[in-house]
Amino acid sequence: MGISTSNFHYALFLAMAAALFSGGLSVGVNWGTMATHQLPPEKVVQMLKNNGFNKLKLFEAHYKILEALAGSGIEVMLAIPNYMLAEMSEDPDAAATWVDVNVTSYLYSGGVNIKYVAVGNEPLLQAYNGTYVKHTLPALRNIQEALNRAGLGDQIKATIPFNADVYYSPDSDPVPSAGDFRPEIIVGEVGWPTDGNKFANVENAKRFNQGLLQHVLSGKGTPLRSGQINIYLFSLIDENAKSVAPGNFERHWGIFEFDGKPKYELDLSGMTEEKGLIPVEGVRYMAKRWCVLNPDVEDSEELPESIDYACSLSDCTALGYGCSCNHLSVLGNASYAFNMYYQVKSQKKWACDFNGLAMITDQDPSDGTCEFPIMIDYGSSVILHKGLLEILGATVGLCSLLLLILKL
């Protein structure tokens, strides 16, 4: 796939407006929600509490998640999506309304422990080609001023998340490590994916994250700055609708599977003990049915097009080179693609046809490291976004992925 391993060092630096180094556990976690079927927020919040997470970073401010967080005591960083930055920068009243609806409304006794508001998500990322540059700072000012006017300026601070590329120097005149920030910095995203690339697997992810926790919680800090480092693990749960523009591994950052099952043992205390993470409890699944290639079908000219269609509206990133399902045969690839589409479509009967190429079975076709998942029951999950299937259909890199699938 030609993806650089440097992409895995997914560190996001947050230059904060207030001192952040406090006592106690300094490890938080990112909770992204770009998934077609999601766990009920109240179950996820309970899982966070069961595992001892007391800091949480969100990428939006959805009312269902905020309601679930009420009374939990978990410290929360909300976020304003990039697409809202223009409005926030140009209209102070819009910023004030956002603060009133998403912050002030949840600060009642027993409400949500909101500590920060992230203005955008890496809005100055070089890949955006300056799209948000002129809006980011004015939006930050308007949000902080809105917090100040609401009497919250001393307890809640607005900040801007930066990608590590802010440290990059021009090739024509490189000056390594010339970037200069205030000392109060949080590492907002750091982790290792488990699939979607030959270097992305459970073993590497466990080794990286456990070593990270051990060092961070030791209090040793870095050669330049001793003491605890505040970090947010990236991420909590896999997201099957994320863009794969940076790489197919983007959908596999979670330390938990899409259904809240831990992927590996991880000692959050940093003591490197073989402690298992506590899963989400009470998850309801759809029926034990899978969609596979009809064994009666012989070579069909329609098969490549059908696989292309199924993958464009689901998630076939596990079929890539070096990934968990790369060992499947061409026929196995077809079954995997059909099943992913079938599950994303909530096991609708019409979603397992493909002009007679597919059939429904109650026999689990999972093979070794390759799991054919069954989706979370639609009635027990919650859709927090609109247009996720459109996002899936527009993901970058689909053509190259399908070449791998078909092994052409």
Automatic annotation (TrEMBL):
It holds the Pfam family X8. Keywords: Disulfide bond, Glycosidase, Hydrolase, Signal. The keyword Transferase does not apply. The keyword Transferase does not apply. GO terms for molecular function: hydrolase activity, hydrolyzing O-glycosyl compounds. Residues 289-372 form the X8 domain. InterPro entries: GH, Glyco_hydro_17, Glyco_hydro_17_plant, X8. One of its GO terms (biological process) is carbohydrate metabolic process. Belongs to the glycosyl hydrolase 17 family. This is X8 domain-containing protein. It comes from Carnegiea gigantea.
